[in-house]
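Re: that chain you flagged

S.,

Sorry for the slow reply, it's been a week of failed gels. I finally had a moment to sit down with the sequence you sent. For the record, here it is as I used it:
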Amino acid sequence: MGVTMESSKVTSKTSSLKALLLRAWKERWSDLQWGIHIKTILPRGVSGDVYNLADCILQQALVGPGPNQLVMSYLKHSLSAQLVSYAAVLQRIAKYDGFHKPHCVNCLLEFIEGIQSGITCRGKPEEGILASAILSLAHWLLQCYHHAAISSPESHNDMLQKPASILGYMLNCDFLTAMLYLAKHDDKVLYNDVVRKCHDVEDVILQNPTLATVAPIQELLSKLCHLELGTTSLTSLNEREIDNTEPLTYCVQALLAIQVMLNPSVDTNELANQLRLLQRLKGYKMARLCCEIIRACLMSLNNVLGTNNEESKWGAFTFLKLPQILFALTGSNIISSADGDYNEDVAQSIQLLLQFVPLIDLMDSPASSNCIEAILTELVKLKLLNDKQVLAYNQSREVVSCGLARMDINTSGNQNSGMAILKVIIRAQPTLQRILKTLDADYSKIQDALPNVLSQVLAGKSFELILSVAAVEGKLKTFVSKLIKFNECAKGGTTARPVLFDMTFLMLCSIVQTNGSQVVFGGEDMRGEKSFIETWVEECMVERAHPKCPDLMINQADQLVVDALLAQLKSPQPDFSAIGVSWDRICMSVPAATKEVVSAWELSLLSTADVKRILENMRQSMCCLPICASVWLCSYMQILPQDSLLKPMNMVQQFLTAVGNEEVPQQENFKERFSLMGQIIRKIQYDMHIATSSKLKVSPLSHSIVSREPMSDELGEIWSGVQDKGWLNVSATHALESLFITAGPQWFVMSLVKEVMKLRYKEELDKAVDLVLAVLHLDIETCTEVLLTFVLPHYLHNIILNNQLMEPQCSALAKLCVYCIYAAWQYQGTSPQKRPFPTDMEEIEDLIPGKLLHLEDGVGGSGGVVSVAGSSQSKTESPQLRPSLLKSLKFLFNFFSFVTEQTPYISQQTHFVFRFIDLIVSCGKDEARPLLQHMPATLVPSLVRALPDLFTTDLVLRLYDLNTTAGRKATASDLCLLRNLSLKPTV
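Prediction finished late last night. Pasting the structure tokens below so you have them in one place:
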């Protein structure tokens, strides 16, 4: 009943409007009189669209062979007075099919030309239909053109030129083009009709070429058929944001320095994806990226040449991993030629490398064994370069270096080290292969010969080199699993082999110290029942940022074994095999035995000489025993007061005391084992920041930060040097890691941001942002969460800090946040390492494995007409966000919404929020939508009202998911709001 009454009411009103129109025409009312009288019919605040007012007026105006201009003036007045909406008028015009009445059609075209500059929407009900109405109008204009072209082009000149002119205006107006793009997603059937009509018009033009000169429309047809973001029809954010003069080296070199330090065995594809993300964030071509990767490796290698630390690691990475990374980045685009296969990007990168003459002079000299030439040789093997291009590089080098003063390479220690490292890396590869092949043999067949084989591996720096090669070639876990197998076989029973157990135990401890237990034992390769060494590392082994409880170590001991072990340690000729248990049980009992010795010494039940004899018996029997004792002693010292440290400290130092030739036990391979034992114990001391009773020769890369200065001063000094250089050397990398572990992520991230905000010039800030982004890869997920939930609220809420959000510092901080978000999003699904600093933002119970973030260039089609299915940008399923990162983003957007709603004017905070959202979009393009989908509905409108001049239609179109109804509705609302603010007259 209610529906019938409402329908009759509308019909009654519509009849009244038609009657009023007839009266107005008969009495020749002016448009002002029309405006006065119609208010007697339309209720206050009710749009004429409800009663089809636009339809009534146009029916009356176009009833004859020619248009009624007076009635058309009523329509124009109704539009100006907002009695009807643009959407309703355009929809009604698009339904007119009287193309046989050219005067009426021309009248409508002139009417559209008169209103096109003001097309907008000022009410919520019309927002949802305006986009489709504009697309319908475009379809009608194509119909006009097509009808005139196939009937009589000479007599319908206006019906050719005016549709082309109106379409040209629409496709050159950002707002109208954006609404067309929105309608393409909202009404796919209609857009397909538009595409088909474009084809029809193209066919007619091909048959009558004179049309192309009378009313050119081909370019407009192409734009209509290829409505895509960032193409000719819409503003390109890429062109607006990217500064191609910004160097990339700052971020690439620093990122590689962090990754090689943390995990040299990182998967090649994972590292390539991180570098590819940097390329997308920065907007560089692949050739530039490849050049900077090569340059970064050469800089870092030159930094470590001639030192005892990191040399083999960086040597293996540069000569073995670097070519594989370049292949992962570019290997899918190999070009075949008569001179050999090659990749164009890699070939261009080598030419770009020529501009760095000083670096090439250092690394490409005969004394350094021609490092670059060795890299080029590997690239030729991978078909990334051919011999002709290598020859061209050599010739270019001769031209560039001609007349330059060359360094005296005969006196350069670093260069000789370069020659040495290249040679030993090359030799280490086949050595590793032979070792792995040997370890594949049956235990019973090689148990006697294997200790001698492994002792050769431990001689000098061979073990370090082999581990470096194994890491970069992805064979580290394979090597570890084979060592574990022999360690398990040798630990007890009929297959017991003490020396082999001792040697494999030492090797595994050293590998864990170098690479971390998560890297060594993590992943699918190490699944299954835990071995002894895995259990011992988990419960006892001291690692950085992973201290162990000394009491828990003691709880693992068997008291009967402890008593037997103490008895043997006190005897003049200890024989641990007489205890009658396996070596793993002895190792687990050593901490309890060590505690008994410490307690007896403190109570004066043992003399110093007795303790020394016990320790000598321990270290001259099996080198694994001093390590088991040292991990407990160092953990024990962490909970002791300062005045109680001397005795346990001296016990650790006793293990490190050199053994004279006459004191060396008559055991096979003892020298090699003792040397490795000493390295492991010293590393334990460094990891635990244990002070020593004497001045040891500490490695310059020691990460102990014992200092009288505040940590903020330490960081400031380190960062000042990094900022000045623009790259991370090895010592700075280790020092920053130490500060991160010692102080925690909140202090570390906040302190780095403060260092960035001290800078004043854009070039310095860009450099600092790149360097900080790389440093935060120490733990990019945790640091990103801290940045979003701890640091940013401080800068936006604290009145002292938010005064620092001026340009260019504001944009620099926003850029750092956005870079970190994308880096954390990609990193979360690729790294097997656990984060050492879980935050309260993390919900461990429902972690969702993240998918790799794909930010590949190239969206949209080229040539031909695109159907609805093909016209949308092809994309894979959006990667899921880990709950911790998602929760941080939700928290941040809610905070942004609060800031913008509480500050409805331009301020530092509102400007920062805009820059943050703008950079999210410009860096990620369509990939930004999963990040932005949890924005509160009021956030963007508040920003548009405060900063309308900074928004573009392209930006608004990228903020929402246009494949959803809610996304299209929000986009239309924001586009109309932006349009209305732009049409608002300035005071």
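What I noticed first: The mean pLDDT is 82.

Talk soon,
D.
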